[in-house]
Amino acid sequence: MIDDPAGQLRALATAAATSVHAAPDLAGQVLLRARRGRRSRRWRNALLGAGAGVAALSTLAAATLLGQSDFFTVTEPSSAMTPTVGIGERVVFDRSLTPSRGDVVLAHLTRDGDEYDAIFRVMGMPGDTVACPATAPGTCDAVMVNGAAVPEPYLNQVTAPFAEVTVPAGQVFLLGDNRPGANDSRYGGPVPLDAVDAVAVRIKGEDGTVRPVPGAPAHDGPGEQDNVDPAGPVPPARAVPAD
Protein backbone atom coordinates (compact mmCIF):
# COMPACT_ATOMS: atom_id res chain seq x y z
CA MET A 1 0.00 0.00 0.00
CA ILE A 2 1.28 3.48 -0.94
CA ASP A 3 1.46 5.76 2.10
CA ASP A 4 1.68 9.00 0.12
CA PRO A 5 0.00 8.69 -3.32
CA ALA A 6 0.05 12.45 -3.87
CA GLY A 7 3.79 12.47 -3.27
CA GLN A 8 4.25 9.61 -5.72
CA LEU A 9 2.35 11.55 -8.41
CA ARG A 10 4.41 14.68 -7.76
CA ALA A 11 7.57 12.62 -8.13
CA LEU A 12 6.35 11.17 -11.42
CA ALA A 13 5.42 14.63 -12.73
CA THR A 14 8.86 15.94 -11.77
CA ALA A 15 10.53 13.05 -13.56
CA ALA A 16 8.37 13.65 -16.64
CA ALA A 17 9.29 17.36 -16.70
CA THR A 18 12.97 16.45 -16.57
CA SER A 19 12.49 14.11 -19.52
CA VAL A 20 10.79 16.85 -21.53
CA HIS A 21 13.88 19.05 -21.30
CA ALA A 22 16.31 16.21 -21.92
CA ALA A 23 14.81 14.48 -24.98
CA PRO A 24 14.30 16.47 -28.23
CA ASP A 25 12.58 13.43 -29.83
CA LEU A 26 10.08 13.14 -26.96
CA ALA A 27 7.02 12.86 -29.22
CA GLY A 28 8.48 9.86 -31.02
CA GLN A 29 9.41 8.24 -27.72
CA VAL A 30 5.90 8.68 -26.34
CA LEU A 31 4.26 7.17 -29.43
CA LEU A 32 6.71 4.25 -29.43
CA ARG A 33 6.05 3.58 -25.76
CA ALA A 34 2.31 3.76 -26.33
CA ARG A 35 2.55 1.09 -29.05
CA ARG A 36 4.61 -1.11 -26.81
CA GLY A 37 2.03 -0.51 -24.09
CA ARG A 38 -0.65 -2.18 -26.13
CA ARG A 39 1.42 -5.35 -26.10
CA SER A 40 2.55 -5.24 -22.49
CA ARG A 41 0.32 -5.51 -19.44
CA ARG A 42 3.15 -4.38 -17.26
CA TRP A 43 3.53 -1.17 -19.25
CA ARG A 44 -0.25 -0.60 -19.18
CA ASN A 45 -0.17 -0.80 -15.40
CA ALA A 46 2.68 1.66 -15.33
CA LEU A 47 0.70 4.10 -17.47
CA LEU A 48 -2.28 3.86 -15.15
CA GLY A 49 -0.07 4.48 -12.13
CA ALA A 50 1.67 7.44 -13.77
CA GLY A 51 -1.66 9.21 -14.35
CA ALA A 52 -1.07 12.92 -14.53
CA GLY A 53 2.54 12.64 -15.73
CA VAL A 54 1.61 10.51 -18.76
CA ALA A 55 -1.31 12.80 -19.60
CA ALA A 56 1.07 15.75 -19.68
CA LEU A 57 3.47 13.89 -21.99
CA SER A 58 0.66 12.82 -24.34
CA THR A 59 -0.52 16.43 -24.61
CA LEU A 60 3.01 17.54 -25.43
CA ALA A 61 3.32 14.82 -28.09
CA ALA A 62 0.08 15.91 -29.77
CA ALA A 63 1.23 19.53 -29.75
CA THR A 64 4.58 18.53 -31.23
CA LEU A 65 2.80 16.77 -34.12
CA LEU A 66 0.42 19.66 -34.78
CA GLY A 67 0.78 20.88 -38.36
CA GLN A 68 2.50 17.65 -39.47
CA SER A 69 -0.64 15.81 -40.58
CA ASP A 70 -2.08 15.47 -44.07
CA PHE A 71 -5.50 16.11 -42.53
CA PHE A 72 -6.69 19.51 -41.37
CA THR A 73 -9.98 21.28 -40.70
CA VAL A 74 -11.43 24.50 -42.14
CA THR A 75 -14.59 26.30 -41.06
CA GLU A 76 -16.82 27.49 -43.92
CA PRO A 77 -17.40 31.25 -43.53
CA SER A 78 -19.93 31.79 -46.33
CA SER A 79 -22.99 30.35 -48.02
CA ALA A 80 -21.11 29.65 -51.28
CA MET A 81 -21.29 25.86 -50.79
CA THR A 82 -24.76 25.47 -49.27
CA PRO A 83 -26.47 23.07 -48.93
CA THR A 84 -23.37 20.84 -49.18
CA VAL A 85 -21.49 22.85 -46.52
CA GLY A 86 -23.39 25.31 -44.35
CA ILE A 87 -22.03 28.46 -42.75
CA GLY A 88 -20.04 27.49 -39.65
CA GLU A 89 -19.71 23.82 -40.58
CA ARG A 90 -16.25 22.31 -40.64
CA VAL A 91 -14.65 20.48 -43.54
CA VAL A 92 -11.86 17.93 -43.09
CA PHE A 93 -9.32 18.14 -45.90
CA ASP A 94 -6.50 15.85 -47.02
CA ARG A 95 -3.56 17.74 -48.52
CA SER A 96 -2.03 14.54 -49.94
CA LEU A 97 -4.85 13.94 -52.48
CA THR A 98 -4.85 15.06 -56.11
CA PRO A 99 -8.15 16.75 -57.07
CA SER A 100 -10.45 15.28 -59.69
CA ARG A 101 -13.76 16.26 -61.20
CA GLY A 102 -16.50 16.45 -58.55
CA ASP A 103 -14.13 16.93 -55.62
CA VAL A 104 -14.75 19.71 -53.12
CA VAL A 105 -11.45 21.49 -52.60
CA LEU A 106 -9.76 24.28 -50.69
CA ALA A 107 -8.16 26.73 -53.13
CA HIS A 108 -5.89 29.68 -52.49
CA LEU A 109 -7.15 32.40 -54.83
CA THR A 110 -6.05 35.87 -55.90
CA ARG A 111 -8.72 38.31 -57.03
CA ASP A 112 -8.43 42.07 -57.43
CA GLY A 113 -5.09 42.03 -55.64
CA ASP A 114 -6.44 40.15 -52.61
CA GLU A 115 -5.38 36.65 -51.59
CA TYR A 116 -7.83 34.37 -49.78
CA ASP A 117 -8.87 30.74 -49.35
CA ALA A 118 -12.20 29.43 -50.62
CA ILE A 119 -14.06 26.12 -50.70
CA PHE A 120 -15.46 25.16 -54.12
CA ARG A 121 -16.24 22.11 -56.24
CA VAL A 122 -14.07 21.06 -59.20
CA MET A 123 -16.35 21.07 -62.23
CA GLY A 124 -13.74 21.01 -64.98
CA MET A 125 -10.25 19.56 -65.30
CA PRO A 126 -7.55 20.64 -67.79
CA GLY A 127 -8.88 20.31 -71.36
CA ASP A 128 -12.55 20.04 -70.33
CA THR A 129 -15.25 22.29 -71.72
CA VAL A 130 -17.72 23.60 -69.14
CA ALA A 131 -20.93 25.47 -69.89
CA CYS A 132 -24.51 25.98 -68.77
CA PRO A 133 -26.39 26.64 -72.00
CA ALA A 134 -29.65 28.56 -71.84
CA THR A 135 -32.76 26.50 -72.51
CA ALA A 136 -35.09 29.49 -72.01
CA PRO A 137 -34.46 33.12 -71.08
CA GLY A 138 -32.55 33.11 -67.81
CA THR A 139 -32.66 29.34 -67.24
CA CYS A 140 -30.30 26.40 -67.70
CA ASP A 141 -31.27 22.77 -67.23
CA ALA A 142 -27.80 21.46 -66.26
CA VAL A 143 -24.11 22.22 -66.31
CA MET A 144 -22.53 20.52 -69.31
CA VAL A 145 -19.00 19.10 -69.15
CA ASN A 146 -17.58 17.95 -72.47
CA GLY A 147 -21.10 18.08 -73.90
CA ALA A 148 -22.69 15.83 -71.24
CA ALA A 149 -25.06 16.98 -68.50
CA VAL A 150 -23.66 16.62 -64.97
CA PRO A 151 -26.15 15.24 -62.41
CA GLU A 152 -26.09 17.42 -59.30
CA PRO A 153 -28.66 16.09 -56.82
CA TYR A 154 -26.92 18.02 -54.01
CA LEU A 155 -28.09 21.39 -55.42
CA ASN A 156 -31.21 23.10 -54.17
CA GLN A 157 -31.47 25.74 -56.92
CA VAL A 158 -30.93 26.06 -60.67
CA THR A 159 -27.77 27.39 -62.28
CA ALA A 160 -27.96 30.57 -64.33
CA PRO A 161 -26.68 30.15 -67.91
CA PHE A 162 -23.02 30.84 -68.65
CA ALA A 163 -20.97 30.56 -71.81
CA GLU A 164 -18.74 27.61 -72.63
CA VAL A 165 -15.22 27.74 -71.23
CA THR A 166 -12.34 25.47 -72.26
CA VAL A 167 -10.17 24.83 -69.20
CA PRO A 168 -6.52 25.53 -70.05
CA ALA A 169 -3.73 23.08 -69.30
CA GLY A 170 -2.69 23.15 -65.66
CA GLN A 171 -5.93 24.77 -64.49
CA VAL A 172 -9.33 23.78 -63.06
CA PHE A 173 -12.83 25.26 -63.28
CA LEU A 174 -14.43 25.73 -59.84
CA LEU A 175 -18.10 26.23 -58.95
CA GLY A 176 -19.83 26.82 -55.64
CA ASP A 177 -22.81 24.59 -54.93
CA ASN A 178 -24.85 27.69 -54.06
CA ARG A 179 -24.68 29.04 -57.60
CA PRO A 180 -26.43 32.40 -56.98
CA GLY A 181 -24.13 33.16 -54.04
CA ALA A 182 -20.69 31.88 -55.16
CA ASN A 183 -17.86 34.04 -56.48
CA ASP A 184 -16.32 31.21 -58.51
CA SER A 185 -14.78 30.52 -61.93
CA ARG A 186 -17.80 31.96 -63.73
CA TYR A 187 -16.48 35.36 -62.64
CA GLY A 188 -12.73 34.90 -62.20
CA GLY A 189 -12.10 32.17 -64.76
CA PRO A 190 -10.28 28.87 -64.22
CA VAL A 191 -7.60 28.80 -61.53
CA PRO A 192 -4.16 27.15 -61.51
CA LEU A 193 -4.20 23.53 -60.41
CA ASP A 194 -1.42 24.27 -57.96
CA ALA A 195 -3.70 26.78 -56.23
CA VAL A 196 -5.70 23.82 -54.92
CA ASP A 197 -4.28 23.09 -51.48
CA ALA A 198 -6.34 20.03 -50.45
CA VAL A 199 -9.34 17.80 -51.15
CA ALA A 200 -12.33 17.47 -48.80
CA VAL A 201 -12.90 14.02 -47.29
CA ARG A 202 -15.52 14.67 -44.58
CA ILE A 203 -17.97 17.34 -43.44
CA LYS A 204 -18.60 17.94 -39.73
CA GLY A 205 -21.96 19.44 -38.84
CA GLU A 206 -22.35 21.95 -36.03
CA ASP A 207 -24.06 19.18 -34.04
CA GLY A 208 -20.89 17.05 -34.27
CA THR A 209 -22.18 14.58 -36.85
CA VAL A 210 -19.80 13.56 -39.63
CA ARG A 211 -20.91 12.90 -43.22
CA PRO A 212 -19.25 12.18 -46.57
CA VAL A 213 -19.00 14.83 -49.26
CA PRO A 214 -22.03 14.47 -51.57
CA GLY A 215 -21.36 14.25 -55.28
CA ALA A 216 -17.61 13.76 -54.78
CA PRO A 217 -15.44 10.68 -55.39
CA ALA A 218 -15.13 8.53 -52.27
CA HIS A 219 -12.05 9.27 -50.15
CA ASP A 220 -10.83 7.74 -46.93
CA GLY A 221 -11.09 10.03 -43.94
CA PRO A 222 -8.67 10.16 -41.03
CA GLY A 223 -8.36 6.99 -38.97
CA GLU A 224 -8.11 6.67 -35.21
CA GLN A 225 -4.32 6.99 -35.36
CA ASP A 226 -4.28 10.02 -37.69
CA ASN A 227 -3.68 13.54 -36.46
CA VAL A 228 -6.25 16.09 -37.68
CA ASP A 229 -5.15 19.69 -37.33
CA PRO A 230 -8.00 21.77 -35.85
CA ALA A 231 -9.68 24.67 -37.61
CA GLY A 232 -7.79 27.95 -37.45
CA PRO A 233 -9.23 31.47 -37.78
CA VAL A 234 -12.32 31.62 -39.98
CA PRO A 235 -11.38 33.17 -43.36
CA PRO A 236 -13.44 36.10 -44.64
CA ALA A 237 -16.36 35.35 -46.96
CA ARG A 238 -16.21 36.66 -50.53
CA ALA A 239 -19.25 38.32 -52.06
CA VAL A 240 -20.56 37.61 -55.55
CA PRO A 241 -19.65 40.44 -57.94
CA ALA A 242 -22.50 42.83 -58.70
CA ASP A 243 -24.03 42.59 -62.15
Task: Tag the structure with descriptive keywords.
alpha+beta, nine-stranded mixed beta sheet, globular
Would you count the extended β strands for me? 13
**The named CATH superfamily of the largest domain:** Umud Fragment, subunit A
Structural class: alpha+beta
Please state the CA-atom Rg, rounded to the nearest Å. Answer: 24 Å
| CATH architecture assignment of the largest domain | Ribbon
Average pLDDT taken over every residue: 77
- Give the number of domains: 2
Oligomer: single chain
Envelope shape: globular
| Largest beta-sheet details | 9 strands, mixed
Helix % is 10-25%
Q: Give unreliable regions as ranges.
A: 5-66
Total helical elements: 5
Strand residue percentage: 25-35%
| Sequence of secondary-structure elements | HHHHEEEEEEEEEHEEEE
* CATH topology annotation of the largest domain: Umud Fragment, subunit A
* N-to-C CA distance: 79 Å
CATH class label of the largest domain: Mainly Beta
Report on the structure:
It is a single chain. The chain is α+β, with helices and mostly antiparallel strands and 243 residues long. The chain has 2 domains: 5-65; 71-229, Umud Fragment, subunit A. Helix content is 25%, strand content 26%. It has 5 helices and 13 strands. The protein has helices spanning 5-22, 26-39, 41-50, 52-65, 185-188, and strands at 71-75, 90-94, 104-111, 114-124, 129-132, 144-145, 148-149, 162-166, 171-175, 191-192, 196-204, 210-211, 228-229. Strands 1, 2, 3, 4, 9, 10, 11, 12 and 13 form a 9-stranded mixed sheet that branches. Helix 2 (26-39) packs across helix 3 (41-50) and helix 2 crosses helix 4. The longest helix has 18 residues, at 5-22. The termini are far apart. Residues 5-66 have low confidence and may be disordered.
